[in-house]
Amino acid sequence: MGIMHELSVTESILEIALRHAQESQAKRVINLYLVIGQLSSIVDDSVQFYWDLISKDTLAEGAKLHFQRIPARLACLECGHEYSPGGDLTCPACHSARVKVITGKEFRLDAMDVE
Amino acid sequence: MPQRVAVVENILNANDRLAAENRLRLDTAGVFAINLMASPGAGKTSLIEQTLPRLTGKLRVAVVDGDIATSLDADRAAAAGAQAAIQINTGGDCHLDAVMLQQALNQLDLSKFDLLIVENVGNLVCPASFALGTHLSVLVASIPEGDDKPHKYPGMYSGVDVLILNKIDLLPYINFRMDFFKQGVEILNPDVVTFPLSCRTGEGVEDWTDWLVGRVATFKRG
Ligand SMILES: Nc1nc2c(ncn2[C@@H]2O[C@H](COP(=O)(O)OP(=O)(O)O)[C@@H](O)[C@H]2O)c(=O)[nH]1
Ligand SMILES: [Mg+2]
Ligand SMILES: [Zn+2]
Prior knowledge:
The complex is a heterodimer of chains A (115) and B (222).
Chain A: H1 3-23, E1 29-37, H2 46-54, E2 64-70, E3 73-76, E4 82-83, E5 99-103, E6 107-114
Parallel strand pairs in A: 1-2
Antiparallel strand pairs in A: 1-6, 3-4, 3-5
Helix pairs in contact in A: 1-2
Chain B: E1 3-10, H1 13-29, E2 32-38, H2 44-55, E3 61-65, H3 73-79, E4 84-87, H4 98-106, E5 115-119, E6 136-142, H5 149-152, H6 154-158, E7 162-166, H7 178-188, E8 193-196, H8 205-221
Parallel strand pairs in B: 2-5, 2-6, 3-4, 3-5, 6-7, 7-8
Helix pairs in contact in B: 1-4, 2-3, 2-8
Bound molecules: guanosine-5'-diphosphate (GDP), magnesium ion and zinc ion.
């Protein structure tokens, strides 16, 4: 993870936000609601810092970012057990490796408050 | 009064759109492209050096190098027989993105190549999220990194088409639980094609290059 990673992620968020703000003829973006899964790109609090820099002089200047973190949930295809992975990803009930990811891969902008 | 607007859009949409443009360009020119990802030192450049001589006379190859670890990597690719080798200056970035590949494509006459090999930045997290528009994602893992890597980097291991397990010459000296490693891979990516090989001894490299030549041929037939 490097500085540029957060910056490029932040630029992408701004691009999407401004496009949708324009479409709904908003004058100002107030809040952004982001959904980030535990298994997707790690994004930390520096995103808000970059956001404040790059959103200056746009409709989204000063908007607040809200992160909803989605924990990883896996389901075992052998015994049906559902669990949050610990150190490794195998099923803690039957030790099977045939499992599937239910949640944790999310990486999206869900909604915004505008006026 | 503030008003809630539904968006529901993938954050990396802009990159994905540009990646789709890159893909179209490559398809139109008939160039098959692969994205080589790995942690630093796993052997991406070594794999390119081992792969290129085995493709001589079969495929015309260009290499785009974004590995910041050594500035010599593009030179090493050229020395190994790449018809063109371009170094991307990532400016300290932790991954390549679709814009950087687009700029590299601008420097190449795509009609002159059958295969483009992109060496991504050495990193097991970030490159997995940024599509480039390549046709095949290849992860180079190596024995010294340890058998728990799939469990620690699920994002990377679940998103690739091919897994190269490099440095198998070191298996006698390192406690590497192959079953534990394979279990992690099986969970995340049951369909991945795996090639255990050694860029030091050359063992297993031919299996990989034969498979790759076959894949490019299938692609060329459309
Ligand atoms: N023992 C052994 N060493 C290897 C093998 N492949 C690469 N190396 C060494 O690993 C180091 C890193 O290789 P390099 O190709 O530069 O890795 P990159 O950072 O992923 O491009 C070099 O010192 C290589 O000589 C292998 O199959 N076996
Ligand atoms: Mg390298
Ligand atoms: Zn189970």
